[in-house]
Write a structure and sequence with these properties.
heterodimer, A: alpha+beta, 12 helices, 23% strand, B: alpha+beta, Ubiquitin-like (UB roll), 5-stranded mixed β-sheet, 14% strand, globular, 2 iron, 2 sulfur cluster binding (chain B), 2Fe-2S-bd (chain B), 2Fe-2S_ferredoxin-type (chain B), iron-sulfur (chain B)
């Protein structure tokens, strides 16, 4: 095994080009488990924690561009006003020790359907910025995540950052698990409201091979809000509409049964989450928060 | 490979480190610092918690090479001297110890919590220590110890 430690982004890309088999490691919360349990013995390990470009975030053409190595703790502390949904999801990741190390870039690299950071990226139409010595590509997150633990990275590419608009309205994230911490989602749900554009995004996590948007449910609730003039009146969404919304979200889910829960339970749970999360977000909107 | 880092204020140069090994392994097996415990090796239990450049981490999830040139503080270095740190004293007094396996990690995590938030609420204590598992105490005396340490700070 070889250990490499690039000190800047250019060097990291050169190493990746020369050693396509190199396994990138940042927070180590996934990679170290594989190493500790002897499940993986990469020929080359490339530590990216010394690459300053990965730890930066800033604004770019009206969007936020967040380095793949910004930890969950920093997202919670530094970006909770701009990205409340992602900050909320970040708070549900592991423990303080894990959030101090784990990164959204890692979530994208691992591409687990249960990745907590993914639904908030999906509902905001985020793009993933990847690069190699050949150049830079920006890929919509929905195309980037290809399947369970599969993503669109080519063998010489690394994840540099993700780009998304700052919140345009209330955002929520909730997940189901046996306790409040250290939980891999049995299922999860992210939601973002965009009152100015009269839009919303809903994404289901951990109930399909990848996270995915529940577009029919989005369309239904968009219609309810539009027809009822609810965006203007800020009145409550009726119980029957909430119930139908939950049903549509559950209908979109493609869960499997595994150690964390049965398909049937997941389908039920995403309906409950969907109703709750929409109600919370709508309450926020009604109160003008 | 060779690893150079600072542990509890002392500089170390360690030869023969395997590229895939964890900081926890280096601390325990190469430096003989057995305070940090090896239990789950997957960041679930918190018993290997240490500071890496002032940040609370699970040392089982830090690749040895990532610690190159960094400052590490383990439970052995938390008091900065011979005696016990007030957090350690509070654990002793409150009887927040049974088998003792989770204690070092809990001491370091509590130290980090009280540094960032000297007067935490019970909810904040629970959230801060959520990554440290104890299978003996039922946590009540651990919460007592954290409250006691916070009162005295």
């Amino acid at each position: 095994m070889e250990f490499m430690q690039p000190l800047d982004w250019e060097e990291a890309l050169e190493i990746k080009a020369a050693h396509p088999e190199a396994r990138p490691i940042f927070g180590g919360t996934d990679v170290m488990v594989e190493l500790n349990f002897g499940r993986e013995r990469p020929e080359v390990l490339m530590d990216l924690t010394r690459v300053p470009e990965l730890r930066e975030w800033g604004e770019e053409d009206g969007r936020l561009r967040v380095g793949a190595g910004v930890t969950y703790t920093r997202i919670i502390e530094e970006l909770k006003e701009r990205l409340p949904g992602l900050a909320m999801a970040s708070r549900t990741v592991g423990s303080p020790q894990i959030r101090n190390r784990g990164t959204v870039g890692g979530n994208l690299g691992t591409a687990s359907p249960a990745g907590d950071a993914l639904p908030p990226l999906y509902v905001s139409g985020a793009e993933v910025e990847v690069a190699s010595v050949r150049g830079v590509r920006r890929i919509p997150v929905e195309e980037f995540v290809r399947g369970p633990k599969r993503n669109a990275l080519r063998e010489d590419e690394l994840i540099l950052s993700f780009l998304l608009p700052g919140a345009r309205g209330p955002q929520q994230y909730a997940k189901i698990g046996p306790r409040n911490a250290m939980v891999i989602a049995v299922c999860s749900l992210g939601l973002a409201l965009d009152p100015e554009r009269r839009e919303l995004g809903v994404c289901i996590g951990s109930a399909g091979p990848t996270p995915f948007r529940a577009r029919e449910a989005e369309g239904f609730i968009r219609g309810v809000l539009e027809e009822g003039g609810l965006w203007e009146s800020r009145s409550e969404i009726g119980e029957s509409a909430l119930a139908r919304f939950g049903e549509l979200v559950a209908g979109a889910a493609r869960p499997i049964s595994d150690v964390r829960g049965t398909a049937e339970y997941r389908r039920h749970a995403v309906a409950v989450l969907a109703r709750r999360v929409l109600r919370w977000a709508w309450e926020e909107y009604r109160e003008g928060r | 490979m060779r690893l150079s880092c600072e542990v509890n204020g002392e500089r170390y140069q360690i030869d023969g480190v395997w590229e895939g090994e964890s900081l926890l392994y280096v601390l325990r097996e190469r430096l003989g610092l057995y305070g940090s415990k090896n239990a789950c090796e997957q960041g679930e239990c918190g018993s290997c918690s240490v500071y890496l450049d002032g940040v609370l981490v699970c040392s089982c999830l830090v690749l040895a090479g990532q610690a190159e040139g960094r400052r590490i503080v383990t439970v052995e270095g938390i008091s900065g001297g011979e005696g016990l740190h007030p957090v350690q004293e509070a654990f002793v007094e409150a009887g927040a110890v049974q088998c003792g396996f989770c204690t070092p990690g809990l001491i370091v995590a509590t130290h980090d919590l009280l540094f960032r938030n000297p007067h935490p609420t019970d909810a904040e204590i629970r959230e801060a220590l959520a990554g440290n598992l104890c299978r003996c105490t039922g946590y009540e005396k651990i919460l007592d110890a954290v409250r006691l340490a916070a009162e005295r700070a």
